Amino acid sequence: MAPNVKYSASKENHLKAIFHLQQEQGIVTTNALAAALQTRPASVTDMLKKLKDQKLLIYERYKGFKLNNEGRKAALQVIRKHRLWEYFLVKKLQFGWDEVHEIAEELEHIASKKLIDRLDAFLGFPEADPHGDPIPDSQGRLQMRRQINLAQLPLNKVAQVSGIASQTSEMLELLQYNHIRLGTRLEIKKKFPFDDSLEVKVRNRPPVTLSARVAKNVLVNDDEPITERR
Amino acid sequence: MAPNVKYSASKENHLKAIFHLQQEQGIVTTNALAAALQTRPASVTDMLKKLKDQKLLIYERYKGFKLNNEGRKAALQVIRKHRLWEYFLVKKLQFGWDEVHEIAEELEHIASKKLIDRLDAFLGFPEADPHGDPIPDSQGRLQMRRQINLAQLPLNKVAQVSGIASQTSEMLELLQYNHIRLGTRLEIKKKFPFDDSLEVKVRNRPPVTLSARVAKNVLVNDDEPITERR
DNA sequence: TTTTATTTTTAGATTTGTCTAAAATTTATT
DNA sequence: AATAAATTTTAGACAAATCTAAAAATAAAA
Fold first, then answer.
1. Which of A111, A166, A195, B110 could make an S-S bridge to A217, C-beta 3.0–4.6 Å?
2. What are phi and psi of A186, to 5 degrees?
3. Cα B112–B118–B124 angle (5° rounding)?
């Protein structure tokens, strides 16, 4: 049933953004979604009505909303496409991991499921995109990973960067400047309660200071990284 | 100047279709374009006005139209994108050459020029797409090739299939069924003046009969193919 | 060269996605 | 609890791309 349902690019963008927001907050608000999509609350309300009519979300006016099963499945297909294209751009076309997001935003709206499954195979069924975010499989199953943000990491505990929450190019540029990338191992050397900024140490580099805003957007593995191989 | 001008998908489709039509007929008519795009003449007129305002074509009402320099350049960029994606789909993702057109119709509207130039390099700067149609280079230069259609080929002269004019999936299916594909060498064994159908022979195969309609859409090299290597 | 037929354009509507400004509702604050 | 502030929704408008039906222009035929 419903193997190749096609939603407009705008609807897909809304579904995807709702999915990400409800990961963090459970229920999503109109204002939050409008901010995430750089649009107006009124426009969001308009779209919510359409998505509700299409039975993709649970929504009662003034009370917030979240995806239902159908909506979640649709969102995961978009996320799958986005992340596979990002992987393709970096691994095959030699793009930098910090410059692929915008292009993938366009590619993710190409409909053909066959295309995506072939691309997946061509890329060797990668598990994560270049930012470390896991790629849903063909059935939309997303292998969840235990991630915490850098602000939550205890002092002096080494962790490995496994994802970047906010992927604006400004953010990615800042991280690149500080030699923080996917897979980078780092530890917090000092926390400044005044503004919650952190002094972070990456191996073989002088320590750098990160604002609380940045730290909250750097995701790291919750458990001990591999430090020795045997 | 104007390196990354972005036109809507619909405008790009119009530009591309006009380009193809004027290749054959010099000047293009509203009805012909409407037929090519499977839309209505009134819709075409609406779009023509917009394209004229954007200075992409020469158009006087009731008198037909054609692309100007700017429009031709834009059309060639779309054609370049389309053909490179087709090549990618066939050569890298193992699609059949008769099933890539629809997907490429979507991919061709992705904007980034950098993406396309990287893709071009990744594919090894191919000269022609899987249907044998030449791929414009990064500057939009299209290397023209001497092609005639199969109906014009003299009796018993071997020629090599170098392009398919009408790429409907019905047409491509028919050709595939008859083992006629890009690069296939064939010759005309008999012409039937009654309906201008042809008996065509492909090496190691029994002869097949093609209608005049099909023959006009199969393009072959004008000059002798290479039969021996030295 | 009139008349008829065809082609093309205009006029007015529709759909999708967006917006602003105002109204309705909920939440927060005195 | 009453009022103020913030959030969310509605009402009405607009742009893009399309459509149908009717009018205008051109081409073909009698």
1. A166
2. -150, 165
3. 140
pLDDT digits (tens, 9 = 90+) for B42-74: 999 999 999 999 999 999 999 999 999 999 999
Which of A94, A111, A119 has its CB closest to that of B106?
A: A111
pLDDT tens digits along B147-194: 889 999 889 887 888 888 887 888 889 998 999 988 788 889 999 999
Radius of gyration of chain A (CA): 19
A 10 A CB-CB count for A151 gives 18
- Which residue's CA is nearest to the C1' of nucleotide C11? B42
B111–A contact, CB cutoff 8 A: yes
CA dist B25 and A106 (Å) reads 35
* A3 band by pLDDT with thresholds 50, 70 and 90: low
Provide the token pair at A94. Answer: 């030699």
DSSP string, B180-204: --TT-EEEEEEEETTTTEEEEEETT
Q: How far apart are CA A102 and CA A13, in angstroms?
A: 13
Q: List B149's β-bridge partners, or say none.
A: B219
For residue B95, give how far its alpha carbon lies from the nearest alpha carbon of chain A (Å): 9
Residue B62 beta carbon within 7 A of nucleic strand C: yes
Q: Give the containing element (helix H, strand E) for A148.
A: strand A147-149
Using DSSP, state whether B56 is helix, strand or coil: coil
* Torsion B55-B59-B61-B65 (CA) sign: negative
First-to-last C-alpha distance (Å) of chain B = 47
Ramachandran assignment for A156, one of left (phi > 0), alpha (psi -120 to 50 degrees), beta (any other): left
